[in-house]
Amino acid sequence: MSGLGEGATWPPSMGIRQYRWSDLDSVWVLHQISLAQVGLMPGDGVYYDDDIPQITEVYLADRGDFIVGEVAGSGIVAMGGLRRIDDHTAEMCRLRVHPEHQRRGYGAQIMQALEDRARGLGYSVLRGDTTLRQVAALQLYRKSGWRELKREVRGDTVVLYGEKQLNAVVSQF
Predict the structure, then answer these.
(1) Measured distance CA(64)–CA(114) in Å, rounded
(2) Are the CB atoms for 115 and 140 separated by under 8 Å?
């Protein structure tokens, strides 16, 4: 690919780390851009953002986590959170990749890091949701072994709920 210096890789590597308070503005913008890209807006019955200003309290302080993915020269391009539901179950939420950085595997890297972190925190089940509008997210969930639990119509949007067993043993044939 032209334009890459010697030793450069494509796609550029993404570093993953835990959220810190100084990330709030970047996370807020990434959240809004990602939802607007698929036509989700405040007041539509699906969009909510009250947890974003409280990431430390909602995610980090209650046996959860929130991570960001950074690319040199671009800053935070991906994010995702784990929120405790009960002692065995966590919700994966806020999985976002900036539109200019999609289709490079960053979403899969964030998802894998969150699944690994959930196992490390002692969870055996992950739950999550997305909409039919978020085609890339649907493909990622399906490819990663999630199963659909139910669908719900909210306004003109269909929300899909799914889960993944983290400690399931798959028998080999």
Answers:
(1) 10
(2) no
Cα 46 from Cα 26, distance rounded (Å): 22
pTM confidence score:
0.86
pLDDT 10s per residue in the chain (173 long)? 344 455 556 678 999 999 999 999 999 999 989 888 877 666 555 556 788 899 999 999 999 999 999 999 999 999 999 999 999 999 999 999 999 999 899 999 999 999 999 999 999 999 999 888 888 888 999 999 999 999 999 888 888 999 999 975 444 44
Distance CA 122, CA 66 (A): 16
Burial class (CB in 10 A: 0-12, 13-18, 19+), 124: middle
For residue 170, report the phi and psi dihedrals to the nearest 5 degrees. -100, 120
Half-sphere exposure of 9 (CA within 13 A, CB side): 7
